[in-house]
Amino acid sequence: MTFQVKTRARSDAVDVTGSVRDAVRASGVQSGICVVYVPHTTAGITINEGADPNVMKDILDTLERLVPWQGGYRHMEGNAAAHVKTSIIGSSVQVVVERGELVLGTWQRIFLCEFDGPRTRRVLVKVLGEK
């Protein structure tokens, strides 16, 4: 399954947990693994706390301090910082599926992390396992 996410800013974190849950339920898989993948070089995917929105703001702010937009990079397109941040976060996550549901911790959510927006991004979900 593929769905799209519209980001709102150059750096953004969008909770996609609901859409991933929908994909798992639609797959009919009862026990297995769910792979969530973002096919972009300037956007990533991560799992972290979703109860307090300041957690993801802190993560984005920390990445900005570690990898500032203006950093004397050699990449000619002007978005080298976005590429570096994506490499730090990663382009996929895997989540266990049991009884047809994602197995996430109490506060865990799945986030698309935008580093070169705003844009419309694709998220691919593949659910493997037993029905």
UniProtKB/TrEMBL annotation:
InterPro entries: UPF0047_YjbQ-like, YjbQ-like_sf. Belongs to the UPF0047 family. PANTHER family: UNCHARACTERIZED PROTEIN YJBQ-RELATED, UPF0047 PROTEIN C4A8.02C. This is Secondary thiamine-phosphate synthase enzyme.
